[in-house]
Input
Amino acid sequence: MDKQAEQRTITRDGQLLLGKMAKEQVETVWDRLAAQQPQCGYCEMGLSCRICAMGPCRIDPFGEGPQKGVCGADADIIVARNLGRMIAGGAAAHSDHGRDLVEVLAAVAAGEAPGYQITDEEKLRRLAAEYGLETDGKDTLVLAGELAAALQEEYGTRKGYLTMTGRAPEKRRQLWQAQGISPRGIDRETSEMMHRTHMGVDNGWQSILLHGLRNALSDGWGGSMIATEVSDILFGTPRPGPNTVNIGVLKEDQVNIIVHGHNPVVSEMLVQACEDPELVALAREKGAAGINLAGLCCTGNELLMRHGIPVAGNHLMTELVIGTGAVEMMIVDYQCIMPALGALAPCYHTRMISTSDKARFPGMVHREFHPDNAAELARELVREAVENFANRGETYIPVQAVPSVGGFSVEAILDALGGTPKPLIDAIVAGKIRGAVGIVGCNNPKIKHDYGHVTLTKKLIEQDYLVVDTGCAAVANAKAGFKVAEAIRYAGPGLREVCGSLGIPPVLHMGSCVDNVRILVLAAALANALQVDISDLPLAGAAPEWYSEKAVSIGAYFVASGVYTVLGPLPPIAGSMNVVKLLTEGLNEVVGACFAVEPDPLKAAELIMGHIEGKRRALGLTARD
Ligand code: BF8
Ligand code: SF4
Output
């Protein structure tokens, strides 16, 4: 086995494909990371600023060189501004994804989106009622149109509050109000962050960071929550069901089509097109046994959650999938799609297609999806993928797929519990389950691929902490085999007993990254049932391998919602001890939770378990030392 590949990933499929691609002299993300060494120390510490043309500026962390930028900004201001803009970037990405779904909902209501429909009408009516709309006897499409309009209001400035924050416990909402961080509008908070961090506006590092929490809350209880809820309305609320994961989901004898990105608006249409009998017949004519659709990253998670569509891999597998030589077409929408992919495809026979007006990539053919042409375009693309089967050369699919179960929406979890959170609360009170941990976020080539997620998860379930996961963490844990009922063998005795009697795995797949809001809603339901705040609960969050701005926004809204959150990689804040202290200690005084940073997942597990036991003690429950 290739030593270098073993250092890069813990996954067998990843190691074997890295070995193959190294022999073929095809570069990957790890090679490009190596070529970037040493990376800029100023930037790593958050101490460089290029916000205006008097700069770029940098602060000398050793105190020998300049301590102020040309405008006079010091290390605290520069670090806080940079972090604030990361949050804004992440919140914008999630929330704009949500907006695209609202636009599809509006188009469905107007009869301008053939192929799309209202799938979960009950949820549509529930959400409409939450928005104060009259639902009784109202035609479904009329109501959908009214709801779409009400959701569009959430993005603006006129309303002044976000309706779905009403799901948070009363105490939490009062705290946000008292701290001045209740989000007022989704676009407003992101726009205000860009304003505040313009040269010569907000130069209070604390006030920038507090606004960062408000900006992140506008994502968590706003844009992302809209993305998840509207996706459920359009495509169905997930229910538990089987699926398979890793490179082994590709089929030697079938046309393989991969969807990559985040927005189910595109990938859902491909699910339908791949089932079209005419296209399946065409595939047979071309010598293939059928058409196999598989996902990558979060759009993969969306399809896995709702249809049991297999997922080929997470973020660091996106190049390696093409290296199998077995992919006829990869269709991308947006977010986390490496621009390297287009250049890689000609080494094999894969056709690369970009679909979003907002996201173009070198080396990809652009075929733009809109609600009115999506169903037809999806069929066209599948047809072209089928035609491309004839161009396939040698293939390499070196592993068997791993079985997994996904689909744990909050609704599905409550159903599994018999309709109320009480059995889960009872198990926590009895100490059979010590608490729950949300493990979320990305892969990052600076951390051995999947090692952070899998090691942390394994340690926690062994010790009777229930794990819920999303995003690339969820794919890592599925590949590790933690998501079938038999995986209770990895769990401690208490967790094993509870999951065994409910017939659920000890690690529950809750979806894509926008679906982190499902974790918020579940936490709020537990807090409301116990009449406490979220910060009183024995809960924690972790992002052991995060890389993206979206992950920074997620971490910030978890913490602002009262969930202690441990990050693997250190964000670019080390240049300001004031900022580090505020984020890792001071926020406890502000929002009752804070961040920790611990790259070693075993040590991160210790921090999380210590935190949860502390919360148990404070609630008067039995606690381990
Ligand atoms: O939204 S976990 S690498 S794919 S950012 Fe991206 Fe990170 Fe994966 Fe999904 Ni989320
Ligand atoms: Fe330099 Fe200030 Fe301009 Fe930043 S805003 S580049 S620190 S002058």
Remarks:
- The chain is about 50% helix and 10% strand.
- The pocket of FE(4)-NI(1)-S(5) CLUSTER with Oxygen (ligand 1) is lined by residues 262, 297-298, 314-315, 335-336, 441-442, 471-472, 512-513, 548, 550-551 (CB under 6 Å).
